[in-house]
Amino acid sequence: MFADFDFAVVIKSLPFLWEGMQLTLLLTILAIGGGLILGTILALCRLSPYKLLSFAAGSYVNFFRSMPLILVIFWFYFLVPLIVGRPVGGFYSVLVAFVMFEAAYYCEIMRAGIQSIRKSQVHAGQALGLTYQQNMRYIVLPQAFRNMIPILLTQAIVLFQDTSLVYVVGLHDFLVNAEIIANRDNRLIEMFTTVAIIYFVLCLSASLSVGALQRKYAK
Amino acid sequence: MNYNWNWPVLITDPYFGWIVSGLGWTIAVASASWVIAFFLGSLIGIMRTTENRILLGIGTVYVEIFRNVPLLVQMFLWYFVFPELLPESAGNWVKRGIPLPEFWTAVVCLGTYTASRVAEQVRAGITSVSIGQRYAAKAMGLKPFQVYRYVLLPVGYRLIIPPMTSEFLGIFKNSSLALTIGVLELTAQTRQIEEYTFQGFEAFTTATVLYILVTFIVMTIMQIVEKRVAIPGMVSLRAK
After folding, report:
1. Mutate to test the interface with A, among B176, B214, B217 (most CBs of A within 10 A)
2. Which residues contact B216 (CB under 8 A, 6 or more apart)?
3. What is the Cα–Cα distance from B168 to B127, expressed in whole angstroms?
4. A51, A70, B168, B201 — which has fewest CB within 10 A?
């Protein structure tokens, strides 16, 4: 019960939890960066007039979207060392898994973003003599990106929560570090409640800020 | 990259049985939690569209709490923390008394989590029924319950069939998280096969193919359902 809730355990464990949080944040940021780049390339492929390219990108997205993230993590945890030919450590395998997995979701967001740009913008670019690449680089993508910022940020919050799944391969992230202390001191209630509250506060304030941002943009 | 392929290992004893039982548990967890998610989610979604401020508040708090804590953390809260918060006898019953405690914990966790997402879909469905229909129903003298039962819900639910399908597929994929508390569902079983035989390719490919297969079957069925229940002349959200 909460009557013997031991705050001292929580306070003492804060530095160790912060170490875990650093890994969580690092993984989140790298996965967002990689996922966004790969996702944008995929979105361009999906919208490309070349049938083969758009089919390949479409299959990629559907493939990853029908798989559970845990299975993807297991896949790459097993696959990456095999391809590289030597052990690479859990972090890189998991990072590859997250980038590949999130790219499928970012692809759909970016595709919607690109499609939200009016055709006349593209035509104006063409009339100015811009090549396809220049048109994308200077006209379409910056606007698409800006239109999609709220949704991209929401997806980032989801990704931040999803990184807790590295638990299944035992990377020392925020949750795993909390679990280590919970088991060592036999303080499961304190540690898991603390973790839940910290996640909740971070994610809620992030999603409230995204909402505020969205309202500002909508004006 | 050198790798010894051994596909036949999948149909040898006991691995074939593991895969079958894994798939069975995945489907069991997903379906049982969907029942909770659907009814609880609908209730909360409807609460969020009423004019009663208390109901509105409860609905909003529920959705925000369940959406902003990672599902895995929720799983641990239900499994490790929840039984301790109950009075001792009830806690012991949850931990040991009920058959298959891990299974039911996973079901409750996934059900309540997905309910928060279903609630958002139901709310979106109800609010996208034009407000005129609500007024018209009220003007005809329908009670609030009847307004929902005969006007808003029949139209609203039809509109949200596509997003509800993806929520169901979401619960089906998320059921893999049950492995963290010891439910041997599909992902857990293939992981176990990989550990026993070192045939990771074969094991994970099987799981992947099965997940894709179920996704495909569910989507096909739901597309048929959507066509069947469509109201002539009404545009579905998908077509927009």
Report:
1. B176
2. A66
3. 21
4. A51
- Crossing angle for the helix pair A69-84 and A90-115, to the nearest 10 degrees: 120
Reported as half-sphere exposure (CB side, CA atoms, 13 A), residue B89 has a value of 0
pTM score of the predicted model: 0.89
Q: Tokens at residue B139, please?
A: 């003007």
Residue type, B238: R
Positions in chain B short of pLDDT 70: 1, 233-240
Q: How many angstroms away from the CA of A197 is the closest CA of chain B?
A: 8
Cβ of B229 under 8 Å from any chain A Cβ? no
- DSSP letter at B177 equals G
User: Does the beta-carbon distance from B72 to A164 stay under 8 Å?
Assistant: yes
- Supply the ipTM of this predicted assembly: 0.89
What residue ranges define each of the domains in chain A, with the CATH number in brackets? 2-218 (1.10.3720.10)
Which CATH code is given to the segment(s) B11-229?
1.10.3720.10
Query: Does B6 touch chain A if contact means CB atoms closer than 8 Å?
Result: no
Residues of B in contact with A67 (CB under 8 A): 173, 208, 211-212
Structural domain boundaries of chain B? Answer: 11-229
Cα B128 versus chain centre, distance: 23
What pLDDT is stored for residue B238 in this prediction? 46
Interface test with A, best of B4, B67, B68, B120 (most A CBs within 10 A): B68
Q: How wide is the angle at C-alpha A150 spanned by C-alphas A149 and A153, nearest 5°?
A: 85
In angstroms, the CA B213 to CA A59 distance is: 14
Which among A78, A85, A195 has the least Cβ separation from residue B200? A78
- Within 8 A of B180 by CB-CB distance, chain A residues are 167-168
Cβ within 8 Å of A, B 71-130? 71-74, 76-77, 80-81, 84-85
Residues of A in Cβ contact (< 8 Å) with B81: 188-189, 192-193
Q: What is the mean pLDDT of each run of 10 residues along chain A (219 residues)?
A: 73 90 95 96 92 94 94 90 83 94 94 89 92 91 90 93 92 92 88 93 94 81
Mark yes or no for CB contact B72/A165 under 8 Å. yes
Distance (Å, rounded) from C-alpha B180 to C-alpha A168? 7
CA dihedral B136, B140, B145, B149 (to 10 degrees): -70
Number of CB atoms found within 10 A of residue A34's CB = 18
- What lies within 8 Å, CB to CB, of A176 at 6+ separation is A20, A166, A167, A170
**Do A37 and A218 form a contact (C-beta atoms < 8 A)?**
no
A to B CB pairs, distance under 8 Å:
101
Residue A193 contacts B where some CB pair is shorter than 8 Å: yes
